[in-house]
Amino acid sequence: MAASRVALLTERLTEDIRAGRLAPGTLMPTHRDLAARHGMAVASASKVYARLASLGLVIG
Q1: Are 52 and 11 in contact (CB under 8 A)?
Q2: How far is residue 49 CA from its own chain's centroid?
Q3: Distance of CA 34 to the CA centre of its chain
Q4: Sequential pLDDT tens for the chain (60 residues)
Q5: Own/partner pairs, 10-17, CB within 8 angstroms, 24+ separation
Q6: Total-model pTM
Q7: 37 CB-side CA count, 13 A
Q8: Alpha helices in the chain (DSSP H)
Q9: pLDDT for the residue numbered 60
């Protein structure tokens, strides 16, 4: 279940970034904040950010 939540959130954030709803330079929530907001483990939030980084969508 966690893997699908990671995939879904990664997809949603990817769409938001590519659509310009998250502009370049936007400060993303911390791993802990992202996890809390979406009811997931911090490790899962870290996977989301790692996937976004591998796509070249975030740095940090």
Answers
A1: no
A2: 5
A3: 8
A4: 567 999 999 999 999 999 999 999 999 999 999 999 999 999 999 999 999 999 999 998
A5: 10/48, 10/51, 10/52, 13/48, 13/52, 13/57, 14/52, 14/55, 14/57, 17/52, 17/57, 17/58
A6: 0.90
A7: 9
A8: 2-18, 31-38, 42-54
A9: 83
For residue 12, the tally of other CB atoms under 10 A from its CB is 12
Nearest of 16, 9, 19, 21 to residue 50 by alpha carbon: 9
Q: Which two tokens stand for residue 11?
A: 């997809």
Buried/exposed code over 25-45 (b: 16+ C-beta within 10 A; e: otherwise): eeeeeebeebbeebebeeebb
One-letter amino acid of 6: V
Calpha distance 42→25 (Å, rounded): 23
